[in-house]
Design goal:
Strand content: 15-25%
Helix content: 40-55%
Number of helices: 17
Distance between the termini: 48 Å
Number of domains: 4
Length: 496
């Protein structure tokens, strides 16, 4: 039985200003649909995840009717609009737009109506872009705060203002009966439940960074103070009491903390042109900064900012640069949290440690690079010995190698014969064998299988004689993953 499906879409900007996606879904449910697809994407983007699922469902012949609030909810790109129109007509899918009714694509009038709406949607998109650009230009001219504000702030009367509204209860200093209070009839803004504001938390992070001078230690302190479950009143469902929920997320990464500390808004300035263009964040030096638009609401003084910049440029976040990588980087994984491990150096020693050990992972002990290499060599030589002793069944690759060896032997046998006019046909046979050999040699083969089957692979001393470049080549083919935890290598996963 074919389905009646609905589609709802809003752009990210539309979703920011309203709840129109929920309204579209409610209307579609009222008009009776079997399944609803939804996206929060630009209508000009044809690669929307659920929109592509809808297209596949139509192409599978499982759709009877497609419903949407309006044509521009389906798409705003003319080429994609004409494609969908032809697709609906090809698979005999009825189109029902709630703002106008059924669109009969089998008639000239229905097709003309669809074409006009496709072109109108493209026109509306261009006018929206022009209108947004004019609004942005006016906001810059009038020094109006940008719509998105950094943590610790809110926007009042188009100006940045520190958010001093109590919002969370810290672990340290919370009342002993906080769990009981969260179920009582306390108002949402009760100081028995909420005592710290975002502005106060923000200032605490700034002071902690100036004191500790390391982003990892700041995040550890904030995690210890607030934990992962910050108590906040939630609105109860009908017939249920309110329960404590996670009420605030600060920063989960050191790089996020760094970007926040360097935001000019925290110094009392307003900035524009700071959001991604073509998928890339512009550097702070490229931002359009309007100074001293809200000096009375600054979180950081100019002197503090200079000190923060000195800390960041001298030591903050240097690990993970290209010059601090190794050929095992990306293969070493923390067993406890599953995160990638970073290569670090201390004096003449190099070691790997969990990249999240400075924040939330408690696997803090490192593993020396020499210990990891020893474990790899032992694992490879052991595996090579297992294959040599026949504990592993021969693979299709080894059969191909045997076939090549057999062809080479036939060619050698022919070359050992004494030639004469009567043996002229042997030359043709030899030429054919060379063609077969070339074909077999050009076939893609499993290089790792060839390495592990080499007689020297069982010799543990052979691996210790390899140079760094040679190890990089061999380990790249043989080693898939290295698991470490609490200062130990617990597993080496090979590709063979």
């Amino acid at each position: 039985m074919k389905l009646t499906i609905g589609y709802a879409r809003v752009s990210t900007t539309e979703q920011f200003y309203s709840q129109s996606l929920d309204r579209q879904i409610d209307i579609l449910k009222e008009h009776g649909v079997d399944k609803i697809f939804r996206d929060v994407e630009s209508g000009a983007n044809s690669d929307r995840a659920e929109f592509q699922q809808l297209i596949k469902l139509i192409q599978q012949g499982e759709v009877r009717t497609l419903k949407a609030v309006a044509w521009d909810r389906l798409m705003r790109d003319p080429s994609m609009g004409f494609f969908v129109k032809n697709l609906l007509r090809e698979y005999d899918v009825q189109l029902f737009l709630l703002n106008q009714g059924e669109v009969d694509l089998s008639t000239a009038a229905g097709e003309l109506s669809a074409d006009m709406q496709i072109l109108l949607g493209a026109y509306e998109r261009k006018t929206i872009i022009e209108r947004i650009n004019r609004v942005h230009k006016r906001r810059r001219k009038d020094q109006i705060a940008w719509q998105v504000f950094p943590f610790g702030y809110r926007i009042i009367n188009n100006k940045y203002e520190l958010d001093t509204t109590p919002c969370v209860c810290p672990i340290e200093g919370r009342p002993a009966n906080y769990r009981e209070l969260s179920f009582e009839d306390e108002p949402d803004n009760s100081l028995k439940l909420l005592s710290w504001s975002k502005a106060r938390i923000s200032r605490e992070m700034v002071e902690s960074f100036l004191e500790l001078r390391k982003g990892s230690k700041v995040l550890q302190r904030m995690h210890a103070r607030f934990g992962s479950s910050i108590i906040k009143k939630s609105k109860p469902a009908v017939g249920l009491k309110s329960k404590p929920v996670i009420g605030l997320a600060i920063f989960g990464t050191i790089s996020g903390l760094k970007r926040w500390l360097r935001n000019p808004v925290l110094q009392g300035h307003t900035c524009y042109q700071k959001y991604p263009r073509k998928g890339k964040y512009p550097d702070i030096s490229e931002w359009n900064v309007i100074p001293n638009t809200h000096p009375g609401q600054a979180l950081i003084t100019s002197e503090e900012y200079q000190e923060i910049e000195e800390i960041i440029s001298s030591s903050f976040g240097k690990l993970g640069k290209p010059e601090r990588t190794y050929y095992l980087t990306g293969k070493v994984v923390c067993q406890k949290c599953g995160g990638s491990c970073d290569l670090k150096r201390s004096g003449q020693y190099s070691y790997y440690a969990c990249g999240h050990s400075r924040t939330y992972c408690d696997s803090r002990e490192h593993v020396r690079l020499e210990r990891i290499e020893e474990a790899i060599i032992y694992r490879i030589s052991t595996r090579a010995n297992e294959i040599y002793l026949g504990n592993t069944a021969p693979t299709e690759d080894s059969a191909e190698l045997a076939k090549i060896a057999e062809i080479k032997k036939k060619i050698q046998d022919i070359e050992n014969l004494s030639w004469s006019k009567v043996d002229r046909d042997l030359n043709n046979i030899k030429r054919d064998l060379y063609r077969v050999l070339e074909t077999e040699m050009n076939k893609p083969r499993n290089v790792s299988q060839e390495i592990i089957r080499h007689p020297q692979a069982q010799n543990i001393n052979f691996w210790y004689t390899l140079t760094k470049t040679e190890r990089e080549i061999f380990y790249g083919k043989l080693v898939d993953r290295i698991l470490i935890v609490d200062g130990k290598v617990v597993a080496i996963d090979l590709s063979v």
